[in-house]
Amino acid sequence: MKKWVALTGSTCIAMSAVAAPMVVAQANAPVNIVVASWSGTNVTNGIINAQLAAFNKSHPGIHAVYKPISGNYETILKTEFVAGDAPDIITLNNGGQAPTFESEGAVVPLNSYIQKSHYSLKDFFPGAINMFVSGKTVYGLPRDQSPLVQYDNPAMFKAAGISGPPRTWAQFQADAKKLTNPKKKVYGYVQTPQEPRWGQFLMQAGGNVMNPAMTKMTLNTPAALKGFTFFINLYRHGIAAQPSTVGATWGGQALGMGHAAMTLEGAWAIPYLQDTYPKTPFKIVTLPRGPKNNESLDFPTAWAITKDSQHPQQAWEVINYLTGSGEARWVEQGGLVTVRKSLINMPYYKHHPIYQNILNQLPKAYPWNFPNGFDQYVNTTLANETLLAVEGKITPKQALQQLQQQGEQILKNGGSN
Distance between alpha carbon 192 and the CA centroid of its chain, in Å? Predict the structure, then answer.
């Protein structure tokens, strides 16, 4: 979208003994700032529009407008970057998108704006801010986040004679077995076998997919194999199922339909279940503990200024508002998980205790992320190899060996798939 500054004219007529020509004095209209994100729910889109309306009211020199992008968000943005026509502000996503845009120079460093505005980063949860920082360069300021937590159907637990949620892997496996009834298409655990859902099992066993700096693959460790094997065996033992097995597309839907007793999702499942399946009871608990811990993956997003913005200072003012005083509004209107530690005790969460165990999981949550060049690996390779292991066509060890080798090759090629 082309950036423009509309000019409005006011007419002044100078009078003298002889009629003088008309002189036009032009005054600048507000600077137009386009804010883009993927097209979310009507609720999310409405919240962003409301936030920007409040910003515009308090900043008469800037007019921020929201541009929701339908379709493949990353692909559309890349096309706009090539054309030099990207929005002023975009949302950076997790899973490798942020490092890709950062390394390609699509978004600009925010350090100078942060310093001049005396903007503090100390209040952000480390998992929310760290994903958008490369070295000492800050590329985005966190918007929202959500760690994975466990969603249970308490009615199913009660019917199976289970008094409470599982606290350990052993209890999780035993409960899943009791809660499974294939004849009724009911399974103890229903989940898509993708890395964003088995990554935390690796962490809970003391392993991970990559090292923290994302410079080395770490799937060839005993700890990684232990966590991955536990996850795969849930399916092989028949106590876990893919959503498609029960006529669903994801774990939250399977839970709502009454086909799953447990699933792992983030805060995004709350409004979905409440609106789509209001008669299905659900409870949210922190994850069961593995051999080492009960850590989970976190899915933060952030606002960033693009290289194409012709008004980066005004764009910064918008981001400053959205992530500062606008953050509480973002939480209160959308029931989202705050990225600020100071808002954990805000009245909204006290009046909506359903979020409490999501907030409790935050200190043990780490951002789901990959370096530049891992797009295909994240979107295809991880799922394909995992599915082969779930179906028994290869062993868990063979799956991890393949994933280790392919990841090492991408790193060796300098981030090229």
Answer: 17
Q: What is the pTM of this model?
A: 0.86
- Confirm if 191 and 240 have CB atoms less than 8 A apart: yes
Dist CA 369 CA 101 (whole Å)? 13
pLDDT digits (tens, 9 = 90+) for 370-384: 998 998 999 899 999
Contact 258, 280 (CB under 8 A): yes
Same domain, 345 and 236: no
Do 406 and 342 lie in a common domain?
no
Cβ-proximal residues to 284 (8 Å cutoff; 6+ apart), any chain: 149, 150, 151, 152, 270, 354, 355, 357, 358
CA atoms of 398 and 124, how far apart (whole Å): 39
Residue 153: alpha-carbon gap to chain centroid = 25
Cross-strand bridge partners of residue 303: 91, 141
User: Domain for residue 278, yes or no?
Assistant: yes
Residues 6 or more apart from 7 whose CB is under 8 A from it?
Answer: 26, 27, 28, 29
- 246/313 same-domain check: no
Query: How many Cβ atoms are within 10 Å of 393's Cβ, its own excluded?
Result: 10
> For the chain, how many structural domains are there in total?
2
Largest CA distance in the chain: 101
Do the beta carbons of residue 92 and residue 142 sit within 8 Å?
no
CATH code of the domain covering residue 243:
3.40.190.10
The mean predicted confidence, pLDDT, of the chain is: 90
pLDDT given for residue 328 in this prediction: 86
Q: What is the DSSP letter of 60?
A: T
The CA-based angle 128-220-239, given to 5 degrees, is: 75
Q: What is the pLDDT of residue 13?
A: 30
**CB-based contact 274:286 (threshold 8 Å):** no
